[in-house]
Write a structure and sequence with these properties.
Strands 1-2 form a two-stranded antiparallel ribbon. With about 160 residues, the chain is mostly helical. A hairpin with a 6-residue loop joins strand 1 and strand 2.
């Protein structure tokens, strides 16, 4: 009877050891897979991904700890989002309209800057709407603005008498 109990205890211990080993193996492989997926989300370099996975495969939890210390701080998605935010901020800064002479922000319907008297816009000859200075035709009525009139230059009196 005691040998039968010892055999049963031995079988139970073998099952416990086998289950523990299977769990540790599954945990080890899951650490390797998690490391590979994490480094792929942080870098496009396949060599770095394979090296990180190999480090965790060989050194286990210590390799995972080393990887956590050495991995890039942000993911590729976070870097992309940050780049989009920076681009949006730069676009917003570029779109801000200011007077070319004094740098003050004008209202959209101002023809002249009230601070330095610089002409900001010109009226359309046909519909009277304000046009940007560089526009070659009116987007509201389609007419081409008339060219600026040249001021008549008076002839010098001394030259006409000679």
């Amino acid at each position: 009877m005691p040998t039968e109990i010892l055999n049963n205890v031995g079988i139970v211990l073998q099952v416990i050891v086998a289950l523990s080993g299977a769990f540790l193996l599954a945990f080890w492989l899951s650490m390797v897979i998690w490391t590979f997926r994490d480094i792929r989300s942080r870098s496009r370099d396949i060599f770095a991904a394979l090296l990180a996975a190999l480090m965790v495969l060989l050194f286990g939890p210590i390799g995972l700890l080393l990887y956590l210390f050495l991995r890039p701080r942000e993911t590729l998605a976070e870097a992309y989002d940050r780049a989009l935010e920076e681009e949006a901020l730069l676009r917003e800064i570029e779109e801000r309209v200011v007077c070319p002479t004094c740098g003050q922000p004008p209202q959209p319907d101002w023809m002249l800057c009230p601070y330095c008297h610089t002409q900001l816009k010109k009226p359309c000859a046909e519909c009277g709407r304000l046009l940007e200075m560089e526009w070659r035709l009116c987007p509201y009525c389609g007419s081409a603005p008339s060219p600026p009139e040249l001021a008549a230059v008076p002839e010098p009196a001394a030259a006409s008498q000679l």
